[in-house]
Amino acid sequence: MYEHPRGKSTPGLWGRIACAWAIAFAALHFYWALGGCWGLSVSAGPLAEERPWWFVVVGLWGVGLLCLVGGGLGWLLALSWPGGLAGRAVRALGWCACAVLLLRGVAVEVLLLTDAGGSGIAVSAEQRFWTLVLWNPWFLAGGLAFGLAARASGRAKGAKSGLA
Q1: How far apart are the C-alpha atoms of 12 and 17, rounded to whole Å?
Q2: Rounded to the nearest 10 degrees, how much is the dihedral formed by the CA atoms of 29, 31, 33, 38?
Q3: Is residue 19 predicted with pLDDT exceeding 70?
Q4: d(CA 127, CA 43)
Q5: Computed from CA positions of residues 61, 67, 72, 73, in that sequence, does the dihedral angle turn out positive or negative?
Q6: Among 93, 83, 94, 78, which Cα is nearest to 162's?
Q7: CA proximity to 90, closest of 26, 12, 3, 142
Q8: pLDDT for 80-137, tens place per residue?
C-alpha cells in the first residue's frame, strides 16, 4: 500500500487504471476482430475494409491478446510487491510498457503533425484527425498510466506480495 504524502492511502490506483486501460483496448481489438467496424476505418484505413488474414490475426487478435497481457501487468502493478527480483521485474515491465506506449503516441503525433511521410503516404484527412485527437492521446494516457503505476509500485513500503 502506498501512503500518499498527505496521509491518503492509494493502494494500487494507477495499476488498476493501467489494467482497465489495457482491457478496454483489448475489448476494442476483439470487437474489430469479430467483424466490428466502429472506429476501425479511421485507425486502419484501407485495411479495415480489406481485412487481410494477417491483419485480423496479428493486428486485431494478436494486439488484443497483447493488451490482455498488459492488463495482467497493470493488475500486478496494483499489488504491493516486496523489493525482491519479482517486484523489480514487474516494475521494469511497467516502465517498458510506459516507454513503448509513450514513444508510439509521441512518434506518430510528430510524424503526422510535421507530415514527415510527405504526400507519398496515403493518410486521409479523417484518419489524420482521429489519430491526432483520439488514438495518439489514448496511447499517451496508457503510457502515463503504466509509468505512474510502475512509479507507485516502486514506492510501496512494507508491502506483502498479495499473491499468497
Answers
A1: 9
A2: -90
A3: yes
A4: 6
A5: positive
A6: 78
A7: 12
A8: 776 788 889 999 999 999 999 999 999 888 887 777 666 656 667 777 777 787 788 9
